[in-house]
């Protein structure tokens, strides 16, 4: 009897050993609970990115408005106009190609205002504000280099178009629809788990996807999944009021969305290795990623290991006037709840950026002073997983491309 038991034990041990060997070297997939409601799930869609042909324009009608999408004057241009103007424009259009100045000149004509042919200086252009039916600001067009939408190199994105997925995902708590671009790595294997590198401010950060994916192609970094989180195309992602609402006033709701809804959803569609995943935010987004890191312990879902806190503007009035903003100076009570920090944080800034916003400090610490005090607090708590770098000769955001590539090489390099 004893010999039979011994044989059985040996068989079990060998079986477990075989399973362990089979799983060796494979990335571990962490199961996250998906808290999306049935309404949110029903409103979520995923598909291929729509690239607009350089010689064609597309139109989408929203609530009596027309969203014009076209690469104009080298810009991937999205702008919203009243449908009455759009009908007027096409009814009077003469020519084969649309130029930005033609569009704005027509808008001035439509309003009966004078257009300055030497630049975008007429009142009609500078104050081009379209209202929704409820009277709220729908979109605003600023001078010539402004694009009411996503900035990216159309040619570079087209080259990797087949590897990009466009997700529209609705959040009930914030009553917002987010547009999320996911770029899959070279030789993507659906059976394998990959870390995600998630960037906020998708309106700008999506432009980096072709660069980062090429780093994988060139063997500079391992394969990862790139994710940029932006807003529905009806929303101007460059609007500071929008950014303040998402990153500052509704920071708790946005963190809940990323942690309990978007991340689990991505894990269901792709296999994600959250143990090596990263979250980036800059400026107001940097204020948010600092908040996210030091509130991560309040969630069962652990979506990120690494956090990039770039040029955090803790001094901005939109943050300082929000509820509980002073708690950033104590990392939102994180060390009252925990003895150690089990996350990795990279905080950074530009050497010259303090002078850029001197008029806004109102007695609060500047960006770089705030970073210095943050590092002092980390030293006090004996945190060893925080790194800081100030980029010489750089202003508020011009160091970001270099910084992000350095971060990727350090954390995902071979």
Number of domains: 2
- Overall geometry: globular
Order of helices and strands: HHEEEEHHHEEHEEEHHEHHEHEHHEHEH
CATH architecture of the largest domain: 3-Layer(aba) Sandwich
Helix/sheet category? alpha/beta
Return residue spans where pLDDT drops below 50 for at least 5 consecutive residues.
Answer: 7-27, 52-67, 69-78, 118-149
For the biggest sheet, the summary is:
9 strands, mixed
Beta strand count: 14
- Helical fraction: 25-40%
Strand order of the largest sheet: 1-7-8-10-9-11-12-13-14
Kindly estimate the percentage of residues that lie in beta strands according to DSSP. 15-25%
Computed CA radius of gyration, to the nearest angstrom = 24 Å
CATH class term of the largest domain = Alpha Beta
Number of separate helices: 15
SSE topology sketch:
Blueprint: H1 2-23, H2 38-42, E1 45-48, E2 58-62, E3 65-72, E4 75-82, H3 83-92, H4 100-111, H5 123-126, E5 128-131, E6 137-141, H6 154-159, E7 164-171, E8 176-183, E9 196-199, H7 202-205, H8 209-217, E10 225-231, H9 240-249, H10 251-269, E11 278-282, H11 284-293, E12 306-310, H12 317-320, H13 334-337, E13 344-350, H14 367-380, E14 386-391, H15 400-412
Parallel strand pairs: 9-10, 9-11, 11-12, 12-13, 13-14
Antiparallel strand pairs: 1-7, 2-3, 3-4, 5-6, 7-8, 8-10
Helix pairs in contact: 9-10, 9-11
């Amino acid at each position: 009897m004893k010999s039979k038991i011994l044989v059985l034990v040996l068989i079990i041990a060998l079986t477990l050993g075989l399973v362990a060997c089979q799983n060796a070297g494979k990335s571990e997939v962490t199961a996250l609970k998906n808290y999306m409601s049935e309404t949110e799930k029903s409103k979520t869609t995923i598909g291929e990115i729509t690239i607009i042909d350089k010689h064609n324009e597309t139109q989408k009608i929203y609530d009596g408005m027309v969203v014009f999408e076209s690469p104009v004057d080298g810009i991937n241009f999205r702008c919203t106009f009243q449908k009455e103007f759009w009908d007027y424009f096409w009814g009077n259009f003469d020519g084969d190609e649309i130029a930005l100045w033609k569009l704005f000149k027509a808008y001035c004509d439509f309003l009966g205002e004078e257009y300055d042919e030497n630049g975008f200086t007429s009142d009609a252009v500078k104050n081009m504000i379209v209202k929704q039916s409820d009277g709220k600001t729908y979109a605003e067009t600023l001078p010539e280099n402004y694009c009411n939408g996503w900035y990216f190199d159309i040619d570079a994105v087209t080259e990797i178009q087949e590897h990009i997925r466009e997700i529209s995902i609705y959040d009930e708590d914030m009553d917002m629809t987010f547009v999320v671009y996911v770029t899959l790595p070279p030789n993507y294997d659906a059976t394998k788990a990959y870390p995600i590198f998630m960037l906020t401010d998708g309106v700008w950060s999506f432009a980096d996807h072709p660069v980062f994916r090429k780093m994988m192609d060139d063997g500079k970094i391992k394969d990862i999944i790139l994710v940029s989180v932006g807003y529905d195309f009806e929303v101007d992602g460059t609007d500071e009021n929008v950014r303040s609402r998402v990153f500052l006033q509704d920071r708790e709701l946005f963190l809940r969305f990323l942690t309990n809804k978007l991340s689990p959803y991505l894990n269901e569609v792709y296999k994600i290795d959250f143990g090596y995943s990263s979250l980036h935010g800059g400026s107001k987004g940097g204020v948010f990623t600092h908040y996210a890191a030091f509130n991560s312990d309040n969630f069962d879902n652990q979506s990120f290991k690494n956090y990039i806190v770039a040029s955090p503007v803790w001094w901005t009035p939109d943050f300082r006037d929000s509820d509980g903003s002073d708690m950033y100076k104590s990392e939102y009570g994180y060390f009252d709840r925990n003895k150690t920090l089990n996350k990795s944080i990279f905080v950074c800034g530009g050497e010259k950026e303090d002078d850029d916003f001197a008029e806004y400090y109102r007695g609060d610490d500047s960006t770089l002073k705030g970073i210095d005090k943050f590092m002092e607090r980390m030293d006090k708590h004996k945190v060893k997983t925080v790194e800081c770098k100030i980029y010489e000769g750089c202003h508020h955001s011009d160091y970001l491309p270099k910084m992000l590539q350095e971060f990727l090489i350090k954390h995902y390099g071979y």
